[in-house]
Each structure stands twice: as C-alpha cells, then as structure tokens.
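Support reply, case 0932

Customer input (verbatim):
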Amino acid sequence: MMQIQTERELQLAAAGFAAQARMEEIRTEQVAMETDARMTEAALAHDQKIMDKASRWVVNYTGTVRPTVTYIFVFELVAINAFMAWYLWQHPTLIQNIDDVIRYSDLIFSADEMAILGGILGYWFGSRTWSKK
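Our regenerated output:
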C-alpha cells in the first residue's frame, strides 16, 4: 500500500512539474512580448525626438522612403510578370498543353515572389494596424 501511494505521489509531482513548466513558458513568452512592445515604443519615441529637431524636408523625406521602396519593388514585380506574360503571348509555340500553362504560371507567379509580396502587404495592411492601437 505504501509503495502504491509513493508511486501515485510521484506521478502527481511529475504532472505538476509539467504544468509548472508550461506556466513558465507562458510567462517567458509574455515577458518577451512586453519587452518587444517596450523596445518598439522606445524606438518610436526616439525617432519622434529626433524628428522634432530635424528640418521639415528631412521629416518629409524620411516619411517617403519606405513607401517609395515598396512602390519600386511592387512595380518591378508587375513589370517582370507583364514582360513574361507578353513574351509567352508573342511565342505561342512555347505552350503546347495545360502542363506548359501550369509550368509558366509557376514561373510568373512563383511561391517566393508571392511570399515577398505577401510580406509587403502584411507589413503595410496587416500588423501595422495592431501596433497603432
């Protein structure tokens, strides 16, 4: 009877340890998220302090850098895809069956390209809304 009770207590202790470990993981994640939020707030406050002292054209230029780079990249993607589609249209012998269509559409709209575009759109229209609240 004593051995059974000891085994039961060890099992309960092991289960409690697992729960405690999970609670520590959750706390660690919360601390990391809070630290990230504080760092973002501090960086924004630092940028604001610098921008308050800067001339107006520097402030305006700084505000246009990220959108300009985004526009350039998106226009580049559109231009490359349009050229590839035009080239395939001008050379109809390249497409003989549906497998060719699938293969060339994978070239035009590659997974890497869509991931990059998704990252850009997510940056501008996704996560940014949450950080402003």
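We compared this against your earlier run and they match. Two observations from our side: The longest helix spans residues 2-53. The mean pLDDT is 81. Please reopen the case if you see a mismatch on your end.
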